[in-house]
Fold each of these.
Amino acid sequence: MTSSPLDIPVRTVDGSQTTLEAYRGRVMLVVNVASKCGLTVQYEGLEKLFEAKRDEGLVILAFPANDFMGQEPGTEAEIVEFCTSTYDVQFPIFAKISVKGATAHPLYQTLTQTSPEAIGEGPMRERLKGYGVVADDPADVLWNFEKFLIGRDGKVAARFSPDVTPDDRRLVTAIEKELARRT
């Protein structure tokens, strides 16, 4: 049986061990991020979403990953510097991890097993095929900026394709639904 995503050890960007249990009772949007991706501009939208909804209980949790064509080559310090100086990111950024395949971090193994299908799936997968990028397993994270929504109860509520932007109505509606729930 799959464990709760809240129980899995993760490292903060400063190297401390923790778990997502620290965010129980809040709505979490877990996003694998990259600084040198065509979707990197989503940091701006993620920060706006965080600022707009954090007082209601939303937290965005960024997990840098270098799994897709070397688009996150930097160190943790370089990633934080880029995110804060370019997009004024205030939400938590964790240590760099792998999000797909045999080396996927246990957090992402659990997230993809729990929620194997992404909302908005299709256009991005087809676009990547045009660049010769074919995902081996449909449940794998497709690309940078895929989003997993975890409810206040610690359960995965939804998964969103990388090209579902932070202001996409489908994502915002799902977040608002989870924010309205009380544990």
Amino acid sequence: MHYFDFTRTRRAIGLGFLFTSLVLSPATQLSARHAPDQAAPDFQIVESVPEASVYGEPGVARTQAVWLQMIGSAKQSVDIAAFYISDKPGSQFAAVVDAFIAKAKAGVKLRLLVDQTFLKDNQESVTRLRGIDGIEVRELPVEKLTGGVLHAKYMVVDNSVVFVGSQNWDWRAIDQIHEIGARIANPRLAQTFGAAFDFDWQVAGKPDLPKAAEQATRPLPFAPVTSDNPVILHGDGGTVLTAFPAFSPPSLTPYALTAEQPALVRMIDQSQHMLRIQVMTLSAIRQYGPKGWWAEVDTALRNAAARGVQVHIIVADWALHEPMQSYLKSLAVLPNVAIKFTQLPPSPQGFIPYARVEHAKYAVADDRSVYIGTGNWEWSYFNNTVDASIFVQGEAPAKTLTQIFERDWNGPYAKALEVDQHYEAPRNH
């Protein structure tokens, strides 16, 4: 059982980077002024759009194209942390898997880290990749170590470019599920993700939690990007952004990196006017791990509403099971809180298991700060499960995510959660 670490909380909060004024060092200011022009921005929001739906913000990059570009550009290495892999012949994802295999045959070093527990239900694609020379696969036994799973979904290419987001390595995640991710081109930030990957990769080779805890305290050979040492990025139109990644759980993360839960709480605590949250599930009632109440994020949301912040939340209809439905209603009754759930129409192909759902995990605060993550908003995803996220301050990404959110909020699939009605959770498989 993992207990909350106050020292790590204080470190994760750092200097209050996200929502207070940021004082940059002269060297950082110089790098921001003289950053080289690039064909693509350092930071891109990436959206997966379910076919035959009204989703899809114009001008936003799509998942398959970004994954193919990143893998195709790899010259030295590709590291992928994936909950699982599920391919389907003829799908858009099949082209991504083929590109991955082609890089192995071209001599690029490829490492794939997957969850051990979930692998038993998704063996075929991983077995295929294990048989390719140049691809090394390891299984991380998170359930045995902390009681969780490896739920992260990120990719690091050549220690220079990162993709992180809600998209599983699943054919459905490209054109049957609504997903949000981000592509970030920055060597130091990529090294930071690489440090998290290397840590879990070594633990997968020798699964021993006490040894992992000892290893986590060792200093890294570079200055990682953290909440109190963020990186400067350039977005669309050359806009200057500040960003840092965060990771869960603390017990399977190098100590020098930022812990995710306290960083998210601080983002909510510092909001002043508006919070927009889109996530598949949200609950303070612990369903996985020790039974009880998850107070940190719940309290932050209630405090935000109490001080006048407008809190708008979109969840998936998969969140309508009990006791989650009752929890969501306990939020919805509060002044300044509005909750909607989405019901996507069926695919023209007919019913598809584990698809046609709102799977994004992001938040926008005050039209200036964003969070894009890989975990749902429940205790286990931050405290015993491996997840990752990116926090970014800047008006441009906040505007894009707000447009995506408002398209969904005002669209035909979103329905207000009425506290005096009972809803049946839909079939998902």
Amino acid sequence: MGFLRKLHKWLGLIVGLQVVLWSISGLIFAWLDHHQVSAEHSVREPERTVLPRAPALVEPANWLSTSGEGEILEIRLATLLDQWVWRVQTTIGVSLRSVATGEPLVLNENLVRELAQRRYVGDGRVSSIEFHPTTTLETRDAAATWEARFDDERQTTLYFAADDGRLVEARNSTWRVFDFFWMLHTMDYRGRDNFNNPLVITVGFAALWLSLSGLLLLLRSFRREDFAFLTRWAAGG
């Protein structure tokens, strides 16, 4: 029982610290404004672009045989800023092609800057444009993206998919505070979103063991004389 008490004490200290972190992070979640966390007030819906009704098209049949982009799932006309493009979705991914030439259209810094300025709401200006070839902590599983960072007080950052220019995520300083405490809450210090990671499962089992061992220690702490008043009460005295 001495070893059990010592183990219960030290394990209780470790699990107790995590319980405190769970409580603090839960309080932060309730305190932060979810509208600010999502940065929804910093992003506007894309405006409808007025384009020629009959653009000069190079039909997909003219370049499909040389695309080498995997099995075609969908080809449709789309808009990118002020121009028509072919949006091609294959088993490999998504790509854009010029409707006028059929040539692949790749996003560059100038296009991303224009996209960011059109989607942003606020008094800041684009301070930097950066390409990320792989997913980042702020975009999670969004693959390759372009990052457009603004110099406003909330450090608003817009992320656009590198394949077709769609807005992937909008982040700001409030979200980054939220995400830090979200990491502490999920105990996923790498990906942030995995509730089934081994660490949180281990702490969960440790908390269960603490409850059971604590109940056992509580029962063992009582002596027969502690219940003497029940005997007297049953005897009517």
